[in-house]
Amino acid sequence: MSLTVAVLFAVLLHGRVTLASDPDPVRDFCIANTDSATNIPCKNSSDATVEDFIFSGIKSRGRFSETGLASIPVNVNSFPGLNTLGVSLVRADFEAGGVNVPHFHPRATEVAYVLEGKIYSGFVDTKNKVFAKVLEKGEVMVFPRGLVHFQMNVGDKPAAILGSFDSENPGLMKIPAAVFGCGIKEELLEKAFGLTAKDISKVRKNLHLC
């Protein structure tokens, strides 16, 4: 490979990597302007206060879902101070036996820190290899960007994690809802999973879909 080709390849690769993540900020901060009456993306910096950089919404856990999970995302949509900074958080609480269903974040890698309890935690790579282990308080696990991952409280007491992301808006795709929601033809699901129409209807009913 010639030096010219090698340099061109490196430049193109760097461009792809740069485009794959949140853009670097070009100012100290850009508090998202929530005033829908204007097209100005940032709040005037002279009007900023310390409260723009503080979020108190995860001091207490959220409301538990039917899977025993209470999740509170802290992204740019709920915390405008994160705008352009390329980071976000989530607080997730689990009842005993609670599950965070298989899901993935299309725009971010996640680092999950166990605040309390025992969490069976893992992800699946593109070769369908599963990397999973029971994590205890104080342990950390990373979930690479875009890979399906999951968590379950395997202890007999409540558990909680704090997840951090390298994106202000990591996105969330829950596999059960994405696959068995109303948008995919039943015939395809029957052939893909070896299910009957009755089976699919039962799954959708149990998941409160459609």
UniProtKB/TrEMBL annotation:
Signal peptide start-end: 1-20
Annotated SUPFAM superfamilies: RmlC-like cupins (SSF51182)
Subcellular location: Secreted, Extracellular space, Apoplast
Keyword flag Manganese: yes
Highest taxon of the lineage: Eukaryota
UniProt keyword annotations, A-Z: Apoplast, Disulfide bond, Glycoprotein, Manganese, Metal-binding, Secreted, Signal
Keyword Glycoprotein annotated: yes
Bilayer-spanning residue ranges: none
Span of domain Cupin type-1: 56-201
Organism: Salix suchowensis
Entries under Pfam families matching the protein: Cupin_1
InterPro entries: Cupin_1, Germin, Germin_Mn-BS, RmlC-like_jellyroll, RmlC_Cupin_sf
Protein's name in the database: Germin-like protein
Similarity annotation: Belongs to the germin family.
Gene3D superfamilies the record matches: Jelly Rolls
